[in-house]
Write a structure and sequence with these properties.
By secondary structure, the protein is mainly alpha-helical. The protein has ten helices and no strands. Helices cover 76% and strands 0% of the residues. The termini are far apart.
């Protein structure tokens, strides 16, 4: 008996075709041929070409989100968190350069894909803000606008990902280095010397 085509098989073939032809130039018919599925089998799993790209982006985001949360929760300091985050971004996104490019360029014309990417940035900013607030509560850093700092970090990450995936200025190893360098440059915004925190706490107690 012939095995039933799976959604995973369609996604693997679709990612390959999108990378080879471009998202806009890949037709549904070409997707079905590459996936070796009938029209009925395809529509039983995906409603449209947009839905296929959206699922590819969602799976990539899901892996990145899971890894990033795990690494950031284990971070011992802002510097360690930045180092871990940069390593995870490079490791997870590295093999998916074409998919990342599509999500940020051709795929952005799709409402579904665009909304998905927007949610990614919002989720990452919220995660970073929560970690900054946690460090503030522990007295590890000065009081800052956590949301503003988080979005500033997300913006910096976005620029370097664009340089790597869209503008092709750097390769994945350089992406990791650039993210690390940016994190190091931004670290002084968050890091406070222990003595300064203790001094501030003492001043608050006296007031």
């Amino acid at each position: 008996m012939r095995a039933r085509p799976s959604a995973d098989g369609i996604l693997v073939a679709a990612e390959r075709e999108f990378a080879r032809r471009g998202y806009g130039e890949t037709s549904l018919r070409q997707l079905m041929l590459a996936s070796k599925v009938s029209t009925t089998a395809f529509y039983a799993r995906f409603a449209s070409k947009e839905a296929v790209l959206r699922e590819l982006v969602l799976r990539l985001i899901g892996e990145l989100d899971e890894r990033a949360r795990s690494e950031l929760m284990a971070a011992r300091s802002p510097e360690d968190g930045f180092r871990r985050g940069a390593a995870v971004l490079a490791e997870v996104l590295g093999p998916k350069r074409e998919l990342v490019r599509l999500a940020l360029t051709e795929g952005a014309a799709s409402r579904e894909v665009n909304e998905t990417v927007a949610r990614v940035y919002s989720s990452l900013a919220a995660l970073l803000a929560s970690q900054i607030l946690r460090l503030m509560d522990r007295g590890r850093i000065e009081s800052v606008d956590a949301e503003a700092v988080a979005w500033g970090l997300v913006g910096a990450v976005n620029i370097h990902v664009l340089r790597w995936a869209v503008w092709r200025e750097i390769e994945v190893d350089e992406l990791a280095k650039q993210l690390q360098a940016t994190a190091k440059a931004l670290t002084p915004v968050l890091v406070t010397k222990p003595g300064r925190v203790k001094q501030n706490a003492t001043q608050k107690e006296r007031s």
